[in-house]
Amino acid sequence: MRFYRELKRAAAFRVVGLAALLAVLAGCGAVLDMAEDNEWRWGFFGKVKFISPVKLRIGVAPFSDDVGLGAAEAGSNLARLMSAEMAKDSNLVVVPAEAVEAAMAARGYTAPLTPLRAAEIGTDLRLNALVLGSLSEVKKYNLRKGWRRLARIVTEQHEYVNAVLAVSAVDSATGIVLVSRANTGEYDGGSGNDDFFEAGDRTGHIPSQEALESSLDDALTESYYRTLTGLAALPFKARVLSVTGGQAHIGFGSDVDLRKGREFVKLLVEEVVTNSIGDSYQIMGAPVARLKVAEVGESGAALDITDGQVAPGDVIQAVD
Question: CATH assignment of 2-232, given 2.60.40.1510, 3.40.50.10610, 3.90.930.12, 3.30.450.40?
Answer without folding.
Answer: 3.40.50.10610
